[in-house]
Specification:
InterPro entries: His_Pase_superF_clade-1, His_PPase_superfam. The chain is α/β, with parallel strands linked by helices. The protein has nine helices and five strands, in the order βαααβαβααβαααβ.
Length: 230
């Protein structure tokens, strides 16, 4: 059964936040690509269990909707914790992780909060989210990413996926902030009905507004949480 898609997308999308990671356990912000890809920052044992449960839940959803596994694609961030999560899920689904159905996409990486936040307490997230509510176009500091900066590269990631796959169920394995932002823009894009917005990029451009982007925390995910998006 080919999934029914929205008019501006060729695929259906699910998101999965990585399982509980070693940085989560330590209460650390690990958001740079350099640090995030280090093996010591992969999943904690609890996170492996969360990833297995998410994989089982996803498999059940596929079976309940008569969707064949050959229609599934797993697209994931290159960070250790997301790669580890994607590997666990692929194993549950019995998909070869090195095969064509699993694809690492660098633009799905964690939001880089900035040099002074890196490897600091995760309590500092609250400062960033307060700033996001007040101005989603503002970076917490030079070198860090604003909400809108993340939207720009998520748009590229979606364009890559949409160009490569058609009629698939896409499982995006990513991070808290980027997945919140991804859900925000896709939800708004789905509802947008303005003129000349028949394609993905023009729809996302139309919804890159203060009112929409400042509310990305409404789509927060727990570690290991699976959710259908669009």
């Amino acid at each position: 059964m080919e999934p029914t898609t929205t008019p501006f997308l060729r695929n259906k999308y699910w998101v999965l936040r990585h399982g509980k990671s070693i940085p989560n356990e330590r209460g650390l912000i690990v958001s740079s690509l350099e640090n995030g890809t280090c093996p010591e920052y992969e999943l904690a044992s609890e996170g492996v269990n969360q990833a297995q449960l998410a994989g089982q839940l996803f498999l059940k959803e596929l079976k309940d909707n008569n969707i064949p596994l050959e229609d599934v694609r797993i697209c994931y961030s290159p960070f250790s914790r997301t790669t580890h999560t994607a590997k666990v899920v692929a194993s549950v689904l019995n998909l070869p992780f090195e095969g064509a159905q699993c694809k690492v996409i660098e633009d799905l990486r964690e939001r880089f909060f900035g040099p002074s936040f890196e490897l600091k307490s995760h309590e500092k997230y609250l400062e960033i989210w307060d700033l996001d509510e007040n101005d989603p176009f503002m970076r917490a500091e030079e070198g860090g990413e604003s909400v809108d900066d993340v939207v720009a590269r998520l748009t590229r990631a979606l364009a890559t996926i949409e160009a490569q796959f058609q009629g698939c169920i896409i499982l995006v394995v990513g991070h808290g902030d980027p997945l919140q932002i991804l859900q925000t823009i896709l939800s708004a894009a789905k509802q947008h009905t303005g003129p000349g917005c028949n394609d993905l990029e023009s729809r996302i451009k139309a919804v890159r507004t203060f009112l929409i982007l400042s509310q990305h925390r409404n789509f927060a995910l727990l570690t290991g949480e699976l959710r259908a998006v669009i």
